[in-house]
Design brief:
heterodimer; A: about 400 residues; alpha/beta; Rossmann fold; six-stranded mixed β-sheet; four-stranded parallel β-sheet; B: about 250 residues; eight-stranded parallel beta barrel; 8 strands; tryptophan synthase activity (chain A); tryptophan biosynthesis (chain A); amino-acid biosynthesis (chain A); lyase (chain A)
Chain lengths: ~400, ~250
């Protein structure tokens, strides 16, 4: 079985482009050009130069000695938190801003949940001198104030999404509506491995630098390219897609996904899409999503704004349904505890999103010889207030 | 012959009205349809509300959210419409997003539409390519006309493809926008209307988005067979309730 995208834009039964006709010319232009543009030597050169000199790649693959001792296995952390802007998101925005330039676009829109993708987008727009508009749910604006300030300082315009649950899903709706209203000059930088084809594939390919580096870094440290497991948290699933990418067809590498269970999978306040979702259409792709029996998309919940999304990327739906991926979910409490533990064992304060991946040790016991690579997708500076409130620091 | 095709043969410009089922009150659906027919409207689009209506502006979004809050579902809509053909003969189209239909089951949905006497569907996020390869046979089996959208950015090649797959009319979106976003037409629209008129398509075109009064209705129907009004009618319903339909229609025709 292949776990990569097919020529029609599907991963197994998931993916495609279910978009209103108003979006067709833009999405089709991108579909016809993205692989060609990405393959151009000048594109590759500029992309990798920026990843190196601007983002600070390669990000370290760090052997977490004390964490490994505690869980009696070999844990490596892929330090995406050390990237410029503090998370993996910038890998994709660098790629997409170069894509937008080559497509002749001079206006950028984006959606953001936790604000990490918004900041990463505002950053590359400042770098290139391109106008930037970020849609963000009104509730997320309130709970991620430092990131809102960063975007403004970077010159982006932050527009609150006032409809629906006023979180990531609604910010995405508003960004799509903006694109419908501005069909010629605008590129929409989607921040996760979601949306109509070719977005999930394009975002995955830009993020695949994560697993590309893991391979040679592990070879240096362990004498072999392949770990026994790769672990990542999943909201829409972009850091996970990048972490898994080069291991997808290597069945001896276990793929582990950790979703946000919120207050518990069956509490009614959860974002564990694989457990609670059913096949349907969200934001232009066929995938698993949380919905009512009548097909209305429901409001998810997670303490982490970045995982608070009712769908999951089509690649991940395919990994779940095919059994290639092992899916777990961590509650708010498990994630917060795992975040605190990492801070105290390794001196690294992770983003709350990332803390969900670290909670894997609550759910799975690894063999002492196993090499477990965890994507440390983001740093926790933006979440300090949440940690303060939770732990009464 | 399907009621839509019959209507399209009439020698007049057609006025089609969109409203959201379950708004302002959950049980208003049949009343609004009956009032619209009496007021002289030619065709009705019954909006099946969706939580995330991507192609719609604030007015239709708000009416959809309210309708869902009122308890509207696909099943309830079918229940409300089951005897509608005893009182009206106007062409009826259900306009909704694909996910609720997918969850109902496409075949079951189409079967129910036929049983009630629904004539066609408009599904903005079901692309013509997917419809053509996966669902056309089912729609045709139940005698349903599926209506596709074109926009000023749609290429001639794609318009010809949409024309070849269509068997009723083409929904011509007047400008690059969500519903209710712009009022009035300028030179860009006129050029676009003329371009499409000159293509001599086999399906007549009905213009939607941006039509709210007699002036815009007249402009749109100078080139096209008819025009669709949505947001402006919803605003009227919000302000004046379901029994003042005549008042609104008289300002258009």
């Amino acid at each position: 079985m292949s776990y990569n995208i097919n020529n029609k834009g599907y991963y197994g039964a998931f993916g495609g482009a279910f978009i209103p006709e108003m979006l067709y010319p833009n999405v089709e232009e991108l579909r016809q050009n993205y692989l060609k543009i990405m393959a151009e030597p000048s594109f590759q050169e500029e992309f990798h130069q920026l990843l190196k000199d601007y983002v600070g790649r390669p990000s370290p693959l760090y052997f977490a000695k004390r964490l490994s001792e505690k869980y009696n296995t070999k844990v490596y952390l892929k330090r995406e938190d050390l990237n410029h802007t503090g998370a993996h998101k910038v890998n994709n925005t660098i790629g997409q801003i170069l894509m937008a330039k080559r497509l002749g676009k001079n206006r950028i829109i984006a959606e953001t949940g936790a604000g990490q993708h918004g900041v990463a987008t505002a950053t590359v727009c400042a770098l290139m001198g391109i106008e930037c508009i970020v849609y963000m749910g009104e509730i997320d604006i309130a709970r991620q104030a430092p990131n809102v300030a960063r975007m403004k300082m970077l010159g982006a315009k932050v527009i609150p999404a006032l409809s629906g649950s006023r979180t990531l899903k609604d910010a995405t709706n508003e960004a799509i509506r903006d694109w419908i209203n501005n069909p010629v000059d605008t590129h929409y930088i989607i921040g996760s491995a979601i949306g109509p084809h070719p977005y999930p594939d394009m975002v995955t390919k830009f993020q695949s630098v994560i697993s590309e580096e893991i391979k040679w870094q592990l070879k240096e440290k362990e004498g072999k390219e392949d770990p026994d497991y790769v672990v990542a948290c999943i909201g829409g699933g972009s850091n996970a897609a990048g972490t898994y990418y080069h291991f997808l067809d290597k069945e001896h590498v276990g793929i582990i996904a950790v979703e946000a269970a919120g207050k518990g999978i069956h509490s009614g306040e959860s974002a564990a899409t694989s457990a609670l979702g059913k096949e349907g259409i969200i934001h232009g792709c066929k995938t698993l999503l949380m919905q009512t029996p009548d097909g209305q998309i429901t409001e998810p919940y997670s303490i982490s704004a970045g995982l608070d999304y009712p769908g999951v990327g089509p690649l991940h739906s395919h990994l779940y349904k095919s059994g290639r991926g092992e899916f777990y979910s961590a509650t708010d409490d498990e994630a917060m505890t795992a975040g605190l533990e990492l801070a105290q064992l390794e001196g690294i304060i992770p983003a709350i999103e990332t803390s969900h991946a670290l909670a894997i040790f609550e759910h799975k016991t690894f063999h002492p010889d196993d090499i477990v690579v965890i994507s440390l997708s983001g740093r926790g500076d933006k979440d300090l207030q949440n940690y303060i409130d939770y732990f009464k620091l | 012959m399907n009621r839509i095709n019959q209507k399209l043969q009439e020698d007049k410009k057609l006025l089609s009205i969109y409203f959201t089922a379950g708004y302002p009150n959950v049980d208003d659906t049949a009343t609004i349809i009956q009032n619209l027919e009496t007021s002289g409207v030619d065709m009705i689009e019954i909006g099946l509300p969706f939580s995330d209506p991507l192609a719609d502006g604030p007015t239709i979004q708000a009416s959809s959210t309210a309708a869902l809050k009122n308890g509207m579902t696909s099943e309830l809509l079918f229940e409300q419409l089951k005897d509608i053909r005893q009182s009206v003969s106007i062409p009826l189209i259900i306009m909704g997003y694909f996910n609720p239909m997918l969850q109902y089951g496409i075949e079951a949905f189409c079967e129910k539409c036929q049983a009630i006497g629904i004539d066609g569907l408009i599904i903005p996020d079901l692309p013509v390519d997917v419809y053509h390869s996966e669902y056309k046979a089912t729609f045709e089996k139940y005698g349903l006309i599926n209506v596709f959208l074109i926009t000023p950015q749609t290429s001639d090649k794609r318009i010809h493809f949409i024309d070849s797959v269509s068997d009723g009319f083409i929904y011509m979106v007047s400008s690059a926008s969500t519903t209710g976003a712009k009022v009035g037409f300028g030179n860009t629209q006129t050029e676009y209307f003329e371009r499409i008129a000159d293509m001599n398509l086999k399906n007549p075109q009905i213009v939607g988005f941006g039509i709210s009064n007699n002036e815009t209705f007249t402009q749109a129907t100078t080139y096209a067979k008819g025009a669709i009004i949505g947001s402006a009618f919803i605003k009227h319903l919000t302000k004046n309730g379901v029994n003042a339909t005549d008042e609104f229609i008289n300002t258009i025709l």
